[in-house]
């Protein structure tokens, strides 16, 4: 066989021996309008907290609530010894009766001296004295009536009631203890429907909201704030909803964050102040590109996806990722709508190598399906 023929046969054998590029499944990113949410770690707080202290001094005679109970507004919590206050009310009533008698006498004397003065039997100076005595009696009656109202009010203060509905803590004093007006802490009461959830937003996040067309996190009087959703640490879904109702006036100079607060309905009183939760804040509808979460790979430089060029070469694309929506990962930056992303066979693809691209599609689930 001629030498040229032998060389041709040898080259053909080598070409046949080279394996074909490995197959991978590619698809263009799914373009969808996605509801964007910004997630924060929040702390649940009571919407109101009241320290129950006595408004009069005295001895506790009865405790009317069970520690940790939920009480309605006006519920009787403590009773103080009422006997000293009953005596004060009776004394004030007697003083009112005494001043009423003085007023009646002053009125009668003024009427008598009015006729005598008209007939010039009594001097005008005596008439002026009687008028002054009448005004003094009227003032004395008004003072005694005010003292009676004060005594009755203090009598009312011996029954210590819940100023609003909520859950009371444990009692700090028992029956028989002496308590001081405005000083002794009896218990605390917290309002639990709604509850507040406080969170800290970065300056970048706050500015993004401030520059958006919908306005800032702050709302005008009477307007509803941005929508929020909440889940507890052991919950998989954001099952609690509410609205932002407050944003602080300044940034914290130490952390560079600004404090926000959302009000969350809590009709079952399950959300407990002091606990942590995940909160997400509505950030609007945004046209986004989405890929399967499994198509995202990571190295020391960050997150990326692998794309296939027209000649079959694998090229990495660093990307900025968003949240996971319906099993797909939102890509906020770094990827084009026409890029062919490897969604299947990632283990067979290496940057710079060639692959055989098989067309697939990206559905609304976490997996891609090949056509």
From TrEMBL:
Classification via Pfam families: Beta-barrel_RND, BSH_RND, HH_MFP_RND, RND-MFP_C
Stored PANTHER family: ACRA/E-RELATED COMPONENT OF DRUG EFFLUX TRANSPORTER, HLYD FAMILY SECRETION PROTEIN
Protein family: Belongs to the membrane fusion protein (MFP) (TC 8.A.1) family.
UniProt key word Coiled coil: yes
Transmembrane residue ranges: none
Location in or out of the cell: Cell envelope
Domain Multidrug resistance protein MdtA-like C-terminal permuted SH3: 289-348
InterPro entries: MdtA-like_b-barrel (IPR058626), MdtA-like_BSH (IPR058625), MdtA-like_C (IPR058627), MdtA-like_HH (IPR058624), RND_pump_MFP (IPR006143)
Protein name in the entry: Efflux RND transporter periplasmic adaptor subunit
Domain Multidrug resistance protein MdtA-like alpha-helical hairpin intervals: 90-158
Keyword annotations from UniProtKB, A to Z: Coiled coil
Coiled coil: 134-161
The organism's taxonomic lineage, starting at the top: Bacteria, Pseudomonadati, Pseudomonadota, Alphaproteobacteria, Acetobacterales
SUPFAM superfamilies, per database record: HlyD-like secretion proteins (SSF111369)
Signal sequence, renumbered to the chain: none
């Amino acid at each position: 066989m001629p030498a040229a023929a032998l060389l041709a046969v040898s080259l053909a054998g080598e070409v046949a021996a080279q394996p074909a590029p490995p197959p991978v499944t590619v698809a263009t990113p799914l373009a969808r309008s996605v509801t964007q949410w910004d997630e924060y770690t929040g702390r649940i707080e009571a919407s109101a907290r009241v320290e129950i202290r006595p408004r009069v001094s005295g001895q506790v005679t009865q405790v009317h609530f069970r520690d940790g109970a939920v009480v309605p507004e006006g519920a009787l919590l403590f009773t103080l010894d009422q006997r000293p206050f009953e005596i004060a009310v009776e004394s004030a009533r007697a003083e009112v009766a005494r001043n009423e008698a003085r007023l009646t006498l002053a009125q009668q004397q003024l009427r008598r001296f009015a006729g005598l003065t008209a007939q010039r039997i009594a001097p005008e100076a005596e008439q002026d004295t009687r008028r002054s005595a009448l005004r003094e009696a009227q003032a004395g009656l008004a003072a005694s009536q005010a003292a009676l109202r004060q005594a009755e009010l203090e009598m009312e203060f011996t029954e210590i009631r819940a100023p609003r509905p909520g859950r009371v803590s444990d009692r700090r004093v028992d029956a028989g203890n002496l308590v001081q007006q405005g000083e002794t802490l009896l218990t605390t009461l917290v309002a639990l429907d709604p509850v507040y959830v406080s969170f800290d937003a970065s300056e970048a996040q706050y500015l993004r909201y401030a520059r958006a067309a919908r306005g800032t996190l702050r709302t005008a009087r009477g307007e509803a704030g941005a929508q929020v959703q909440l889940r507890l640490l052991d919950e998989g879904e954001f099952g609690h909803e509410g609205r932002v109702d407050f944003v602080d006036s300044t940034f914290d100079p130490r952390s560079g964050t600004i404090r926000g607060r959302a009000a969350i309905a809590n009709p079952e009183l399950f959300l407990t102040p002091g606990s942590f939760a995940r909160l997400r804040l509505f950030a609007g509808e945004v046209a986004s590109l989405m890929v399967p979460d499994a198509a995202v790979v990571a190295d020391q430089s960050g997150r990326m996806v692998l794309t296939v060029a027209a000649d079959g070469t694998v090229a990495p694309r660093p990307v900025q990722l968003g949240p996971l929506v319906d099993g797909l990962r939102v890509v906020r930056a770094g990827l084009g709508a026409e890029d062919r992303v490897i969604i299947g066979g990632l283990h067979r693809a290496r940057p710079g190598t060639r692959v055989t691209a098989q067309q697939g599609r990206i559905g609304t689930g976490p997996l891609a399906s090949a056509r």
